[in-house]
Amino acid sequence: MKQMQIYAFDMNCIGHINHGMWTHPRDQSLHYTDLDYWTDLARTAERGKLDGVFLADIVGVYDVYKGSAVPVIETGAQIPVNDPIIPISAMAYVTKNLGFGVTVNTTYEPPFLMARRMSTLDHLTKGRIGWNIVTGYLDSAARSMGYEKLPQHDARYDAAEEYLDILYKLWEGSWDDGAVLRDRANGVFADASKVRAVTHRGKYYQMEGIHLCEPSPQCTPVLFQAGASARGQDFAARHAECVFIASPTPQSARATVNALRDKAAWAGRGADALRILNLVSVVVGRTRREAQDKLEDYRRHASVEASLAHYSASTGVDFAKYSLDDPIVQTSTNANQSALSAITSQTSKPVTLRDIVDQMVLGSRMKPIVGSPEDVADRLQAWVEEADIDGFNLARTVAPESLRDFVDLVVPVLQERALFKTDYSKGTLRTKLFGGEGRIPHEHPAARFRR
Q: Measuring CA to CA, how many Å separate 163 from each of 197, 203, 247?
């Protein structure tokens, strides 16, 4: 059986996925503004040989629920939220092998500056950076950035396709591999004949300029993507190397995984071109009883209000307008289409608000895996076997306790079963994940811009 990949999934805020946990007396996420908080997280993740830390982000606030941002402000549900890129340099400095995935929104970041930012991180991390490509789903973000409303769902992906073409041209085609000479004797840093301006004239973007950074270890960072809609899957099949999904069961995940792998093969990249990771939360104890006691302790701090506000924004549906036993109906929204389909068109029976609330054990819409280290390892192994996924994004509960528990209790069991690595391989993040020399493979559309 293949070895799984595992990332610590987090966000530069106090309330990420499992809402309300910041109120637990042992939780330390109130220190999210301290750099030590993030460097300690990185050290713990590397001690556990995790593949990386995956930092989510959101631009805007969740104001669909009750038509207001008040519920999320009061409960700390991803607001306040700081820039996810800033801590990465420090986290990389205190680690040697840990990878990093960071979310940046294509709708609001100019591609020319984005290219420089990611190249800089690739240099500073020595090739350990990945970019999670998102196009956004909040009207509040669009208004904050000066737009009347968010562009339509598929149009956002159309623009992102063009955005990536610009980045590929900059990362792969502006500087030749042999352009940098560093010739002190003759005072020539780079061969100007091997450096060229990139020109792009498209529907959504126009630009002309030389990439401001010399080639970094990976040139193109490892590309993550998290859209599970039909359009998002098409995008992932062409561009993504790692895909993040959030299916509640292995059976529901398998359909998404099969579709993604089939589309990647159809795109000419091969079914094995993608590493697919599912979101999980874990509550583990040395025994089942200890884990159950810990769960009961945690759940007293869970915030259903914050979770409903988060979920309303994700789906574009104000759940405050439903009574507990009203079925959720399919509507046309411009938010996260896969999140809405998961409780409407893709269910065998109508889903009510009560059904949703019943799932919110720890303040999120997904039930945690709970048990002894062996129980958790069994469940993770079953996920990989039944869903054909490659690993997991591990959401925090009580921080940093939940990550330490996973590293100290679950990782050794996975390693004993040869399901998880006992040490890092050498090289860039891409090399660690896929082997090879660390550059994006020739089958990927970015490679066509390489000289």
A: 16, 10, 28
pLDDT digits (tens, 9 = 90+) for 345-381: 666 677 888 888 888 999 998 899 999 999 999 999 9
Query: Counting beta carbons within 10 angstroms of the beta carbon of residue 27, is it exposed (0 to 12), middle (13 to 18) or buried (19 or more)?
Result: buried
What are the residues whose beta carbons fall under 8 Å from the beta carbon of 140, sequence distance 6 or more? 60, 61, 62, 63, 69
Nearest to 284 by CA among 414, 422, 101: 414
**Can you give the pLDDT at residue 334?**
58
d(CA 140, CA 145): 9
Confidence (pLDDT) at 330: 62
pLDDT tens-digit map of 79-124: 999 999 999 999 999 999 999 999 999 999 999 999 999 999 999 9
Q: Compute the distance between CA of residue 6 and CA of residue 381 in angstroms, rounded to an integer.
A: 12
What 3-state DSSP class applies to 375? helix
Q: How much is the pLDDT for 182? A: 98
**Across the strands, what pairs with 222?**
130
Cβ proximity of 49 and 411 under 8 Å:
yes
How far is the C-alpha of 40 from the C-alpha of 43, rounded, in Å? 5
**309 and 65 Cβ atoms separated by less than 8 Å:** yes
Backbone dihedral angles phi then psi of residue 280, each to the nearest 5 degrees: -140, 155
The structure tokens listed for 50 are 């995790």
Q: Which residues of the chain carry a pLDDT beneath 70? A: 330-348
Which residues fall within 8 angstroms of residue 389, CB to CB, at 6 or more apart? 245, 253, 257, 276, 277, 278, 383
* Nearest by Cα to 244 from 441, 236, 386, 46: 236
Neighbours of 418 (CB within 10 A): 11
pTM exceeds cut of 0.90:
yes
pLDDT digits 0-9 by tens, 320-348: 998 888 888 766 565 556 666 666 666 66
Number of H helices, E strands in the chain: 16, 13
Q: Which tokens hold the place of 353?
A: 């608000």
Question: Which homologous superfamily is 5-301+367-449 in?
Answer: Luciferase-like domain (3.20.20.30)
Q: How many residues does the chain have?
A: 451
* Cα dihedral sign, 374-380-382-384: negative
- Please check whether residue 241 is in contact with residue 430, taking contact to mean a CB–CB distance below 8 angstroms: yes
State which H helix or E strand residue 369 sits in.
Answer: strand 369-371
**Domain ranges for the chain:** 5-301+367-449
